[in-house]
Structures are given as structure tokens and as C-alpha cells.
Amino acid sequence: MLPSVLFDASYFAMPGASEHVDDIEDIFMNINDWADRMTNQNVADFLIAYDVIDVLSAANCYPLVENVNALLELYELSHVFSANDISSRMLTIMSNAETVLESWGCETDEYQNCAIGGVDLSVCGDKILVENFERLCSTIAHSERSANTRILSSFPVNGEILRVSTTVEAVRQKDGATQVVLEPERMTVEIPHIDTPESFLRSLDPLQVWTDAETPEQIHLAVSLQVARDMDLNISSLPLEGESKFFVGSDFIWSLDRHGINDNQQNSAVVLRKCAECVTGAKGTFVRDFGEIRTRDKATSHRMHITKGGAAYRLMFWKKDGVPELANVGPKNELRILQGGTLHRAEF
Questions:
Q1: Taking a C-beta distance cutoff of 8 angstroms, is the pair 152, 93 a contact?
Q2: If we measure between CA atoms, which residue out of 80, 58, 53, 57 comes closest to residue 69?
Q3: Where are the domains of the chain?
Q4: Using CA atoms in the order 153, 97, 345, 203, what is the torsion angle rounded to 10 degrees?
Q5: Model-level pTM greater than 0.90?
């Protein structure tokens, strides 16, 4: 499961939810970066509400060029930004993003008493935008995906976490039908609020990404995040390069599933940490040569101890020109290194 980045309607609203020039300028500065990241990346699902266009139109703040230009003139930013470029970028994001309804299968239709801490909704005079934001946060709470979801809005936030408490009473299904929640419960969750691609990467928990991983690219993302933490790196893009460059082999995630590594969170954490040590060559890391040369590219084979007791798992990896390729995990009594095929890595 990929992490999700949800763009609230207020992020595209012209005029927006905030009247502070600094907030508006930050959105305009970041919008180009977000639009560029969407086209060539494999680390996140970019999502919008299914009715975002209707919401923006009803609030009379659709990001048409004339609306953007009026806002730029109001805050004397016309000499800094192009209304055509900003409008085009916002429309690009909305057209390329998938809807929450398509991705998750449902969105909140009706909710009660949504309280959101960490954000100032009073600055927005448009009730439509406020209610839409509450509905989107309620959707996240009801889906139980808050640990894997990040949200962007133009509302002023205090800190990086939104504390949401809400009761969802009805949800819209993919087929357009409304399903009533028979026994609605009060849901309370924390949702990270981000503003830049860098803050998105910084907000992700390596172990959560590892546990949710379904592809080699997602494993690469988790290990990259762990490497960044271990080396105190402030990363703004992926893949990591230089001494932190590495790949994940096509059989690696299969080996994790085969041996039930992710069935135990403690095992997951240990394997993730060892993979990061393999990449960084951390002091004290004990590596043995496996003694096999891969025919197709002359890569050398190596192994590392992961656990000593029980199955005594080992991490097997190839090295080509000093760059590791995580091959597979296996128990001591089944020492073999898988050949792999396509090399995989996270890109953002």
C-alpha cells in the first residue's frame, strides 16, 4: 500500500482559505514542485475528493486564470508569479490525481460534530470550503488510513499534526450509492499535515512504509527513509545517490512473504535496520562473502546476520561497482542467494 497525499479543495481555491500573504506565497512556490513530482514518481498516491470541482465552483473560487490573477494583484505578487502558470499547474494536479472514491472505494457523505485541532478554520469565511475540509478529514478517519495518509490544505495550521474527532453517518460508494453507517462510532485520529514534497518524505515512518509495502519500490522507499534517519540526512528527492545508492532485487519482497518476516513487527524492524546498515556500511556491520559471482553482470555475493536465535535469518545481497542490491532474506539452514532480475528503486 502506497502512502496517500490528499489535496483538499482549499489548496486550489482562488481566493484561498487563508488571507495571510505568506501562506499564499508558500502555496504558489510549492505548487510547481508538486505538479512536477506527480509525473515521475512511484512512492505515493495523489488523491482529491470526487467532487472537488463542484466544491470549488460552488464556492466561486475555481483556479481560473482571472481568479489567480486577481489574487496576485491583491497581494502585489504579480511580479513574482504568473497567473497562467499557477492556474495551469493547479489544473494539472487535479486532472492527474485520482479520487479518494476510486482509490479507497468510498468517501464520507454525512458526518456529525467534526472537531479538528491544530488548524484555524475561522480564517475562512466560506462555509463550503470548511465543510469540505471536515468531510475529507472524516473520510480519512473512517477509512482507518491516517497512519498512511498526508493532507494538504491552505488553512493555517499549528504544528504538523491535525487531531480529528468525528462521527461518520453515511458514505458514498464507488457506484454512486449512499450507504448508511448502521452503528456510527466516534473516531479520533491524528493526520499529518504537509506543505512541501520534502515535508512529505520527512513525515513518513520507515517501519510503517515497510510494513505496508507490496512492491520492491516500496521496500526501497522504506530502506531509503531508514538510511536518511540513520545518517541524519534531510532528503528532498529519491532515489538516494552517491554512497547511499542501492537497489532492491525483484525477489526480495517475495522472500519476506515466504518467511513471514512482516508477520512480526519486531522482526520487521530488525530486518529494516539491517538493510539500512547494508547500504550505509555502518561501523560494526559484519559482512561475509557468499562466494558466488552472478554470471550476467559479475556482481559479487554477500550475506549479513539478521538474527541469531530461532531461524537465524540472513540478509543476502549482491554488489556491483560498490552498489548493493538487496536480493533476499532466508534462514541459516537454507542459505541461497536469489538471482533477481529487474532492479527496483523508489523515485520521487
A1: no
A2: 80
A3: 4-200, 204-334
A4: 10
A5: yes
